[in-house]
Specification:
alpha+beta; six-stranded antiparallel β-sheet; four-stranded mixed β-sheet; 15% strand
């Protein structure tokens, strides 16, 4: 474990200073984003020109990577992800990897829209209010923009079906391959920022503090980076797990190579990707995966949506 400083009290002060800035930055981003915006690009003037409504065919065709759009008032904000090819899975030499992440294989993914972050409580409860979803997200007023939690796979499916009906466009869950692709965002390391700890998190530093002065650091240490990955997505190594479309398979022998969901065979369990704040760092790697099935409802279960885009 790397020790960043020898004196624990100085280290504690360093952490307090270091983590307050990213958190404030994230809050500023949330407060500054306008719910009425539907289409965004590097040209800030575009932000003021369009209400949240379904994209026209010409607008959809004009989208470029990292453009953002929203197609209804309560729809998630989406980010355009480019098409590409990547190596899915982890090598046996990657610390924390398991046999179900192998064999590594090449996968091609077509461009798509992906939720900038997991679905929020207020986005989810719009579906509940419209009677498209049954699971009520009970949250305080100041938690409305937090990720919805405790969602079963069948409920996640109900949400994307409601979103499709509401917007008139095709929304869905990501495939497992797409979820790893957008997490990696062109990188090949265990996390999009590298193989080690994110320098903005320094969980090893927190472990030093706990060992040195025996204090709980839950209020100081963030579970996930407050910055977007290279594709413009937040919380891909997240505070919650995202449900994907795929059925669980014990390894990748016979897995699709076109980015589609693997739904053949026994489907008693579905796949979760991303990690959770309550679980170890190695379970949040780009290649890490787990499964669950009904009736297990866990607090870290959530979803991030995908939007099929035309050429």
């Amino acid at each position: 474990m790397v020790r960043f400083i020898d004196r624990p009290l100085a280290l504690f002060a360093l952490l307090i200073a270091g983590f307050s800035a990213p958190l404030a930055s994230a809050q500023t981003m949330q407060q500054g984003s306008q719910p009425g915006l539907a289409l965004a690009s590097t040209d800030s003037s575009v932000l003021d020109m369009r209400l949240p409504k379904p994209l026209s065919r010409s607008e959809e065709a004009a989208l470029r990577p990292k453009d953002r759009f929203r197609e209804c008032q309560h729809c998630p904000e989406m980010v355009v992800v480019p098409d590409g090819r990547f190596t899915m899975g982890a090598s046996a030499s990657e610390p924390g990897s398991t046999e179900d992440e192998r064999p590594q294989h090449q996968v091609t993914v077509q461009r798509l829209g992906v939720g900038r972050s997991p679905v929020t409580c207020d986005e989810w409860n719009a579906c509940v209010k419209a009677k498209g979803c049954s699971h009520q997200a009970e949250v305080a007023a100041d938690q409305a923009r937090d990720s919805v939690t405790g969602v079963l796979w069948e409920e996640a499916r109900d949400y994307v079906q409601w979103l499709s009906r509401t917007s008139g466009r095709t929304y869905r869950l990501l495939s497992e391959a797409e979820r790893e692709y957008v997490t990696r965002a062109g990188t090949t390391t265990a996390f999009w920022w590298g193989d080690g700890l994110d320098p903005q998190l320094t969980e090893a530093t927190a472990a030093d503090l706990i060992a040195d002065i025996g204090i709980a650091m839950a209020s100081v240490i963030s579970a996930t980076p407050r910055t977007a990955n290279p594709f413009g997505l937040y919380e891909v190594h997240g505070s919650v797990y995202d449900w994907v479309e795929d059925c669980w398979h014990d390894n990748y022998v016979g897995a699709p190579t076109d980015g589609s969901a693997w739904v053949m065979g026994d489907c008693k369990g579905r796949v979760l990707r991303g990690g959770a704040a309550s679980r170890s760092l190695q379970t949040r790697r780009s290649a890490a995966r787990m499964w669950s099935g009904p009736p297990n409802r866990m607090s870290y279960m959530s979803l991030r949506v995908a939007r099929t885009l035309g050429p």
